[in-house]
Amino acid sequence: MLSRFHDRRHAGQFLAGRLDNYAGRDNLVVLALPRGGVPVAYEVAQALNAPLDVFLVRKLGVPGHEELAMGAIAEGGLRVINHQVIRGLNITEAAIEEATRREREELAQRSQLYRGDRPPLVLREKIAIIVDDGLATGASMRVAARAVRRLEPAELVVAVPVAPPETCENLRFEADEIVCAVTPALFSSVGSWYEDFTQTTDQEVRDLLQKSALAGTGPISQS
């Protein structure tokens, strides 16, 4: 019985085993939430013989308390606002717009950093599998799923190695299929389910995307 994943690579291999019904599909793409989702998604993409890309989401932090999210933005232009937080803290529209502007700049910089000159994968009419290294509240994944849905994939799948059962259940309205490989009833944090949860670096993200591209699976533009 699985107690913990050795590392993100092991988690990706384990998750890929739960997705083998997608292997070999010619319209399949795998999207990773950076940075921690990339090593997991790389293993999934290799196992399924699918192109790999990142999908970028940025939290909108409360001014002065950036660790607290008042919303989030994602590639494709989607912005989700937490009106309860904004009303509770009397956050002004100007502050929201400033945080949005700053994080959109960061999104553009991260896209350039990770992809270089390669365009994002085209998702229209594809089976898109969004992968992260685990979910706690699922807030970032929810925003990502909604943003990917706007890009008109034929099917949207959310796949993670570990998450609490209630989080997986709450995401079922956001995707056509949710694959949570391990759903422990007692869940403290994503990191507690890894023996090695060392932070993934930007360079590792770049290297894995490049390695995937050299293997002939992505990220390349597909129309």
CATH topology of the largest domain: Rossmann fold
The arrangement of helices and strands along the chain is HEHEEEEHHEHEHEH
Name of the CATH first level of the largest domain: Alpha Beta
The domain tally reads: 2
In short:
The chain is of the alpha/beta class.
Report what the structure shows.
It is a single chain. With 223 residues, the chain is an alpha/beta fold. The protein has two domains: 8-57 and 124-212, Rossmann fold, CATH 3.40.50.2020; 58-114, Ybab, Chain: A (2-Layer Sandwich), CATH 3.30.1310.20. It contains seven helices and eight strands. It has helices at residues 8-17, 37-48, 83-89, 93-115, 139-150, 165-170, 202-214; strands at residues 28-32, 52-54, 57-62, 65-74, 79-81, 127-131, 155-162, 177-182. The strands form two sheets. The protein has a five-stranded parallel beta sheet with strand order 2-1-6-7-8, sandwiched between helices. Strands 3-4-5 form a three-stranded antiparallel beta sheet. β7, α6 (165-170) and β8 form a beta-alpha-beta unit. α1 runs parallel beside α2 and α2 (37-48) runs parallel beside α7 (202-214). The chain is globular. It starts with 7 loop residues before the first helix and ends in a 9-residue tail after the last helix. Residues 218-223 have low confidence and may be disordered.
Summarize the topology.
Blueprint (H helix, E strand, L loop, with lengths): L7 H10 L10 E5 L4 H12 L3 E3 L2 E6 L2 E10 L4 E3 L1 H7 L3 H23 L11 E5 L7 H12 L4 E8 L2 H6 L6 E6 L19 H13 L9
Parallel strand pairs: 1-2, 1-6, 6-7, 7-8
Antiparallel strand pairs: 3-4, 4-5
Helix pairs in contact: 1-2, 2-7
